[in-house]
């Protein structure tokens, strides 16, 4: 007999077994509240040169356009908070890029979860998404009760923080749906105050074209001189608005071996970064997300920081 509650419980148990921090489920439908927000953000050019953000507007808001007959969005969180961080006196990279590229790590877990659903429940069609298609990850995770969208526009979770990846499995199976949680940012403005480029233009709105992560990863041209001296030594990505968030004092180290950093990374001094060769780059960042910026991009970022 078709039992939505039992199936939902089975899926959540398997997600936990696969190492996910948490799992929430919401109904696959049009994201009504997000539509005007996304439109305004795009109209204000806050996506900078990230042209892909303006593509597939309808698909971003309606998962049924991505998966035929979609009924449920299963949202999953995977912790990446490291046991040990880089030295404070060096060029920094975002903690999410310490280990192997999360796309591959999570995709294989999602495949396992989908296989499990098919074995246990029957022929269930679906698609896995890891930050690689027009899916509003944070909106779906918030809708399924995994946290709330904070003033820095990241998903925040009580007792956990925000150092985790978000992924989805969109399936044509009806399940029990979770409900959103309340916002617990209160009057705190730590993230807004800490951003050196003033990218958080108002609470809950981040101008992507002013974000250090955008400049060091997405921007293909030269970094504008007006941001000179404002990068706080971030060479790839930026964690500042997360580092200062009070909820992240609850972050606990991940247990995913593939996210452990290359041993050389944590000991690199500024001199090591400045003198890095392409061979060293390939060795240290062999399977890392840092490869996105390529050796030339990382070199450009470090040269900008050195000025």
Strand tally? 10
Taking all Cα atoms into account, the compactness measure Rg is 20 Å
In N-to-C order, the SSE pattern is HEHHEEHEHEEEHEEHEHHHH
Specify the number of helices: 11
Low-confidence stretches: none
Portion of residues within helices:
25-40%
Measure the end-to-end span: 67 Å
Biggest pleated-sheet summary = 4 strands, antiparallel
Per CATH, the architecture of the largest domain is 3-Layer(aba) Sandwich
What CATH first level of the largest domain would be assigned? Alpha Beta
How is this fold's topology laid out?
Elements: H1 4-17, E1 22-27, H2 34-43, H3 57-61, E2 72-79, E3 92-93, H4 102-121, E4 126-129, H5 137-143, E5 148-149, E6 155-156, E7 164-171, H6 190-194, E8 200-202, E9 205-206, H7 212-218, E10 234-236, H8 240-243, H9 270-274, H10 278-284, H11 294-306
Parallel strand pairs: 3-10
Antiparallel strand pairs: 1-2, 2-7, 4-7, 5-6, 8-9
Helix pairs in contact: 1-4
Keywords:
307 residues, alpha+beta, NADH Oxidase, two-stranded parallel sheet, Epoxyqueuosine reductase, 4Fe-4S, epoxyqueuosine reductase activity
What does this structure look like?
- The structure is a single chain.
- This protein is an alpha+beta fold.
- It folds into two domains: 168 residues, 3-Layer(aba) Sandwich (NADH Oxidase), CATH 3.40.109; 101 residues, no CATH class.
- Helices cover 32% and strands 13% of the residues.
- Helix 1 runs antiparallel to helix 4.
- The radius of gyration is 20 Å and the shape is globular.
- It starts with a helix and ends with a helix.
- Monomer.
- Its cofactor is cob(II)alamin; [4Fe-4S] cluster.
- It is an enzyme of class 1 (oxidoreductase).
